[in-house]
Design brief:
Helices cover 37% and strands 23% of the residues. With 275 residues, the protein is an alpha/beta fold. It folds into 2 domains: 2-144, Rossmann fold; 155-274, 3-Layer(aba) Sandwich (Rossmann fold), CATH 3.40.50.620. It has a 10-stranded mixed β-sheet with strand order 3-2-1-4-5-10-9-6-7-8, with helices on both faces.
């Protein structure tokens, strides 16, 4: 059984991401943990005074738990699937602290969330919450762009920097995803150091991708930003996946993606694996 953590703030972005996940896993047995985090700073002394004889628990916690349960019931009604079970979680911790806690306790294998461009600027695709989850939570994360309509992911684009191994745990997880969803892999090695890794790459690919359809290409003398941007513009892609490791080129790509030109063109879901 797959354990999936769904993040919601009741926004249209988060709802859309949840609906994507429910369609993606419709043939798999899943337990979905639906998490809503609340900031303690939202509540003031006046909130407690207006509660009258109602306990603090009823004022601050029970109401939010009931709201989340009503939200989940609407989801269950819309996507009736005997393979699915749902659990609700309301937490008052910081978002990434709460996520890390429930990832460990519930053995979560995947986090699903929508993008949140808090500033409203067109160039901002990833909001601070999205970036923080990617950088501070060591769990596979699926990020769904705003208003993205579900389509079966048949073509998966995997760009690799020079630190990414085609024999790593993260790559083998991507292989498992491709096998499970019968997805083809479009692999692009971005060689910024002229190391001529193609021979070694093809050896690993021939060994690891015996049951996966794939293409493999190498590009040199181009930045990671431009290589990914050009590839997304010139190829039909259903999902982008990245292997992220601290201080890697893709860690820098993600940290800069809040304001750089490349992310404004991101129109497909992004699947993040951690090395």
């Amino acid at each position: 059984m797959k354990q999936v953590l769904l993040l919601t703030d009741y926004s249209e972005n988060s709802k859309n991401a949840i609906f994507y996940a429910l369609q993606l896993f419709e043939k798999q047995k899943c337990t979905f943990y639906v998490l809503n985090t609340q900031k303690n700073t939202r509540y003031t002394t006046s909130d407690l005074l207006t509660s009258g004889n109602t306990s603090i628990y009823d004022s601050l916690i029970k109401k939010n738990k009931q709201k989340l349960k009503r939200f989940v019931k609407t989801i269950e009604k819309k996507y009736q699937n005997e393979n699915y079970s749902f659990k609700t979680i309301v937490d008052y911790d910081a978002l990434t602290d709460a996520i890390n806690q429930y990832v460990e306790v519930n053995k979560i294998g995947l986090i699903v969330m929508g993008t949140n461009g808090a500033t409203g600027a067109k160039e901002v695709v990833f909001g601070s919450n999205t970036i923080n989850v990617i950088r501070k939570v060591n769990c596979t994360t699926l990020i769904i762009p705003e208003r993205f309509q579900y389509k079966t992911p048949k073509k998966l684009f995997l760009p690799l920097d020079m630190d990414d191994s085609l024999n790593s745990k993260a790559f083998l997880q991507i292989k498992t995803f491709a096998e499970k969803f019968k997805t083809s892999l479009n692999i692009l090695r971005i060689d910024t150091k002229n190391k001529n890794v193609e021979l070694e790459d093809r050896k690993h690919l021939n060994h690891n991708l015996k049951h996966v359809s794939y293409t493999y290409n190498v590009t040199k003398n181009i930045s990671i930003f431009n290589a990914i941007n050009q590839h997304l513009k010139t190829h039909e892609i259903d999902m982008l996946t990245l292997i992220v490791q601290k201080e890697s080129a893709f860690e820098r790509f993600l940290s800069e993606s809040v304001t750089t030109k490349i992310t404004q063109d991101l129109k497909v879901p992004l699947l993040i694996y951690h090395s």
